[in-house]
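Example record

Each entry pairs one chain with its bound ligand, iron/sulfur cluster.
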Amino acid sequence: MSNEEEEKILLESIDSCRLLVKERSRLLGRSLTYHVTTFGCQMNAKDSEKLSGILEAAGFEREEDELAADFVLYNTCTIRDNANQKFFGHLGSIGAVKKKNPDMMIGVCGCLSQERSAREKITQSYPFVDLIFGTHNLFDFPQLLYKLLTRQVTKGKGHLISEFWDDTDRIVENIPSRRNYKFKSGVNIMFGCNNFCSYCIVPYVRGREKSRASSDIIDEIKRLADDGVKEVMLLGQNVNSYGRGLSEDINFARLLEKVEEVSGISRIRFMTSHPKDLSDDLIDVMAASKKICRHIHLPLQSGSSRILESMNRQYTKESYLSLAAKIRERIPGIALTTDIIVGYPGETDADVDDTIDVIEKVQFDGAFTFIYSERTGTRAASMPDKVSAKEAARNFERVLAKVQETSQKRAKLIEGMTGDVLVEDINRQDSSLVTGRLSNNLNVHFPGDASLIGQIVRVHLSECRGFYYIGERA
Ligand code: SF4
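Structure tokens for the complex follow.
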């Protein structure tokens, strides 16, 4: 079936759902409500915007209180075993709510539901779940929703409604979406991952890499710009390999050039980059760009070449350092942030010393530092030489202290200068301030009101407070 045919079926299914939602609302004497709870990364947040868009197109109204919604959909993450435990605890508590309100509908989707063992657990231990579907079946959601609503409207009984595929090459365009922000939006440019880093479950639950056609991406960004979006975040597990497998002659650097041409878009961000695929071409395009933000998130994971090899990261300490130096040299003012795992199987103090050495040499502007957490189903989970919790915690503190030192030093470098801030919100602690981001991703708080939200404002960076700035309009 072609993607156009898939799109047609999706829209027809939404129309069919709308009739059932209308009928159910008439019987209840009020609107039917939904709540989507999102766990995990930006890709999941983007998927949740689509799930919410489908539900609203079908006639549901958003309900902020998860416990009060008629339909609750959990978009799950399975990156760590303890994230799974947390989710199952949460699911158990919603079961108690459903006991009191048997008409409540509960759905589970996302990465966790893609795993067979998790699905079996849900079927056996959480029989109150009505609907479950995998990461490759988001496009089937309207059809599954239709089945669920039919069952409810006809008061029919039935088993769990479910749909799973192991992988897919389907990319259905033009799915309705409910954006969380008026002025910024994520845009999927590719799905899946081919890298199989030894600690990571993503390739197993998100499938093989597939890129969207550049014309589809640009059309979406043009529509977003027409709708008031100023900043787009191009999303993929490994954006640097964008274009592989497409019939058109394109790569990530060329795609960025095309996005740059879209009028109305002032800022372009992207994530995530894999160091092994970040090309000179991309660095040149970024250096010449007026719109691509001065920030690259470049996951390091470890500074030890031995550990990197075991992780299957396909770069070494030395190659990472030379890439980072090249980026800093060619793109002045660029912020480099990273992810670091401490306590990976077999890691010694000397390996952690290597990581600290890289942090010192690169002078990261920020880092998400994690203690390694075993993920069942990955290669690393069966590796010997587990690092004790005590050792991991000690080394984690060492790494964190170095990251904090370099990121504070880097942030301070622009004190007293001015910069453009995209205002995102009213400050949560002090409502006389607004909060926004510089191109380099640093947060800035300065006096202002809600009328500034979504605007790019020139701000004097008066005072660096560690990892953020207090400023005033320039
Ligand atoms: S690049 Fe590695 S860490 Fe990132 S999603 Fe793919 S396998 Fe996971």
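The chain has three domains: 3-163, 184-412, 418-473.
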